[in-house]
């Protein structure tokens, strides 16, 4: 197995593995103390060894600060010996090719998984030829932003005109009231700008972001678990999650929210490694970890920009900002403690305040910049963005007119979101989300024989927003495992996964009277996938376990992955709007709440 899985069975700060870090500071930045003579194993340890258990080596401080990566330039040697497994199977690759594959496996594997995800998402992307569910808002708002800088109103028959055999676009310039910031719509509109106002055009960018998010989660999983194999498993599981798949093929905002959420997490993970590498470098000359600043943090700034773009798509990004400030400050405090700081807790409070200020200012700046089109629009009544003329008709107050108008607009948006209680057929309570209690039907038709490819008396076509059931139900078990790892074994990786999931999930429990939907959960699906991946790593077992133990563990993990992939293929017709016999559709309605 590529990378080290010993850490899946213990609570240390990183996996144990030879090699050097891919960052600036080498692992030898902190001198390793001489290893004490090995103690005679106890009777209990000898008994456990009979069942395949091997006590892990406790890593030195340098390795805990700067955990080595499993492969890559600077880690994998230029010449790698042939694989014994491939030789046993009768494959003998040329040494240069095998060495190249080993050295670049950390990119080759994730890219291949992302290509697989992209093929799935772009295949027949323009089907169905309709504005499905909330595409009726965001596809048209996106078009208006690219053609006027602000959202406009559309006639009642706009959908039928846009999707007609000879389409026309009834664009108007009078402003429309909207309740979400513009970044997600600007992104959707870029696809329309490239490919036109049609289903492929308005779904193009969500398909791109969905594919890229698979690549990101594969690379994040690799860095988080220090295993290229587990990183690819994480990417594969995300590629075959039904909700992520459906949202990657629909022009809604939540997939965009998820993308920037994952990007921010990935950047903070890079920042964690980068800052600890700098800390290890400093320890060569100055002991202790009591420094005012831990170095230049470009990855943290990139995370703040991502959180700003997330917030400028939907306000739920604010919860992610708070959670990630706490997370990065906790990581800094842990690094200071490992470096020998005597006041690591107080320094951790300083890190939290400093990170909160820097990341907060950047997030707010990006958010305000996203409203530039609205700000620059006309202040004449009915000629610019909605409420752009409010300050002109309400003189007085503090600040420039555009800021006062924008503040008033946001006050009305907040009132809308907190009082949205209109019942909807597909609304659901967040308690039921992990169980997939009430999915959302984005599109449904019942074609008869001879219509839309139907060859039986009655058929069904549906795009159902639901996760791959076996993956989500396995995720419930995986979350319990991560909770155990975090609380009982102090595993920082489990804590990071739970932090991301909590930021994307728990806030919705405060709005249980609001009209909310299961597809909002797509924002935290990547963290659910990482939890399942961590559980799979534990199933496979540590590298020091016996061959029988790892064989059984790998078989169980493989069966779980295959079951998830089968489950995705089984529901695939419901994810893509494929015409299937009505009996086949009913067979996939496992619960009455899914209808």
UniProtKB/TrEMBL annotation:
<feature type="transmembrane region" description="Helical">
    <location>
        <begin position="252"/>
        <end position="270"/>
    </location>
</feature>
<feature type="transmembrane region" description="Helical">
    <location>
        <begin position="470"/>
        <end position="487"/>
    </location>
</feature>
<feature type="transmembrane region" description="Helical">
    <location>
        <begin position="517"/>
        <end position="540"/>
    </location>
</feature>
<keyword id="KW-1133">Transmembrane helix</keyword>
<feature type="transmembrane region" description="Helical">
    <location>
        <begin position="200"/>
        <end position="221"/>
    </location>
</feature>
<keyword id="KW-0472">Membrane</keyword>
<feature type="transmembrane region" description="Helical">
    <location>
        <begin position="316"/>
        <end position="333"/>
    </location>
</feature>
<dbReference type="InterPro" id="IPR027005">
    <property type="entry name" value="PMT-like"/>
</dbReference>
<comment type="function">
    <text>Protein O-mannosyltransferase that catalyzes the transfer of a single mannose residue from a polyprenol phospho-mannosyl lipidic donor to the hydroxyl group of selected serine and threonine residues in acceptor proteins.</text>
</comment>
<feature type="transmembrane region" description="Helical">
    <location>
        <begin position="494"/>
        <end position="511"/>
    </location>
</feature>
<comment type="similarity">
    <text>Belongs to the glycosyltransferase 39 family.</text>
</comment>
<feature type="transmembrane region" description="Helical">
    <location>
        <begin position="552"/>
        <end position="572"/>
    </location>
</feature>
<dbReference type="InterPro" id="IPR032421">
    <property type="entry name" value="PMT_4TMC"/>
</dbReference>
<protein>
    <recommendedName>
        <fullName>Polyprenol-phosphate-mannose--protein mannosyltransferase</fullName>
        <ecNumber>2.4.1.-</ecNumber>
    </recommendedName>
</protein>
<dbReference type="InterPro" id="IPR003342">
    <property type="entry name" value="ArnT-like_N"/>
</dbReference>
<comment type="pathway">
    <text>Protein modification; protein glycosylation.</text>
</comment>
<feature type="transmembrane region" description="Helical">
    <location>
        <begin position="345"/>
        <end position="369"/>
    </location>
</feature>
<feature type="transmembrane region" description="Helical">
    <location>
        <begin position="104"/>
        <end position="123"/>
    </location>
</feature>
<feature type="domain" description="ArnT-like N-terminal">
    <location>
        <begin position="112"/>
        <end position="335"/>
    </location>
</feature>
<dbReference type="Pfam" id="PF02366">
    <property type="entry name" value="PMT"/>
</dbReference>
<feature type="transmembrane region" description="Helical">
    <location>
        <begin position="228"/>
        <end position="246"/>
    </location>
</feature>
<keyword id="KW-1003">Cell membrane</keyword>
<feature type="domain" description="Protein O-mannosyl-transferase C-terminal four TM">
    <location>
        <begin position="403"/>
        <end position="594"/>
    </location>
</feature>
<dbReference type="GO" id="GO:0016740">
    <property type="term" value="F:transferase activity"/>
</dbReference>
<keyword id="KW-0812">Transmembrane</keyword>
<keyword id="KW-0328">Glycosyltransferase</keyword>
<dbReference type="Pfam" id="PF16192">
    <property type="entry name" value="PMT_4TMC"/>
</dbReference>
<keyword id="KW-0808">Transferase</keyword>
